[in-house]
Amino acid sequence: MRLLAGGYTADMDGRAEGFGMLLAGAPDEPSAGGSLAFAGVRAVVDSPSWLTRHPSLDVVYAALEANGTVQAYRRTGEDAYAPLGAPVPAGESVCHLAVAPDGGSLVASCWSDGRVVRMTLDADGRPSRPVIAAGAEDPYGIGDLAEPRPSRAHQARFLDAGLIATTDMGLDLVRFWRIAAGGLREEQQVVLPQGSGPRHTVMHPGGHLYVVTELSGEVFALAPDRTGRWRIVAGAMLGALPGDTAAELAVSRDGETLYAGLRGSNTLAVLRVHGDGSDLRPTALLEAGVDWPRHHLVVRDTLLVAGQRSDDVVSMTLDPRTGVPGRVRSRATVPTPTCLVALA
């Protein structure tokens, strides 16, 4: 199995040289739990901290965080990539990209200026000029009394029926949008507890949207009511220690287990999903096997974890009965990894 690894380069105090390729297991193995090997840099570029694939084209999109731009790359050989068009401005500290299921557009989230930006994609996958969505306002109104809290857009996710969910870590918001006039129109927002810091989301097969909160170390389950309005229906603590910050949230293939990374204590929190998806129960808290688990990914029967500060990626086999990861099975040196994307 081949994966791409995004990372931080020298402009963001990292040691990566661009995005590279990671090999997991032998080509004929049915799992990704075999040996790991870093196969080198595939595109030399400044701090491609987030990568995502086009759903039907051999095109990869990179969020160049320090430059505030989005760059498309097309695959030009078995493992080679070349820029597809020029970088497109998005916003300060662009940190996440999500491509629509139909491949017609992408949404970029920008941490420093809070921008949520939509770009249309042409037939070859090139992104267009950005259309900036309406900015968020602090639902708690504390900006009127003290130093205003900054908006910190962190992730977008395309949901069913043309709906898009975005997180704002700075203002404790999950915002819901629809495409309108080439841009985005906000339909609703769900306010999370003050200071929780919603970061990333995953979808459950039953229709629940799970949100991991970076600052409070929780997972919230959101679901629509009969009128289609989204609301919080459940929540669970991750077992974070003081000073921890939650990072990525991933779900098992069967939708029965959630995995959340905790930077600081360098642990992985495991939660089991019961019932229709609204019952979350913490079941394990274990060593991540890396320093600063920035990102992790479920690939077949394996959990891959990227250690931003330890310059490595590790693999753990998932217990088929409990979903709990076992001990580190394999490790590869990868410079300052921040994101993993499976290619096949």
Strand composition percent: over 45%
Shape estimate: globular
Helix content: under 10%
The major sheet is characterized as: 5 strands, antiparallel
Number of helices: 0
Mean pLDDT: 95
What Rg, in angstroms, do the CA atoms define?
19 Å
Instruction: Give the SSE order as H and E letters.
Output: EEEEEEEEEEEEEEEEEEEEEEEEEEEEE
Unreliable stretches: none
Query: How far apart are the first and last residues' alpha carbons, in Å?
Result: 6 Å
What's the count of strands? 29
Question: What structural class do helix, strand and pairing data support?
Answer: mainly beta
Give the helix/strand layout.
Layout: E1 2-7, E2 18-24, E3 36-44, E4 48-53, E5 59-64, E6 69-75, E7 81-83, E8 88-89, E9 94-99, E10 105-110, E11 116-120, E12 131-132, E13 153-158, E14 164-168, E15 173-180, E16 183-191, E17 198-203, E18 209-213, E19 218-224, E20 230-237, E21 245-251, E22 257-263, E23 267-274, E24 279-287, E25 293-299, E26 302-307, E27 312-318, E28 325-333, E29 337-342
Antiparallel strand pairs: 1-2, 1-29, 2-3, 4-5, 5-6, 6-7, 6-8, 9-10, 10-11, 11-12, 13-14, 14-15, 15-16, 17-18, 18-19, 19-20, 21-22, 22-23, 23-24, 25-26, 26-27, 27-28
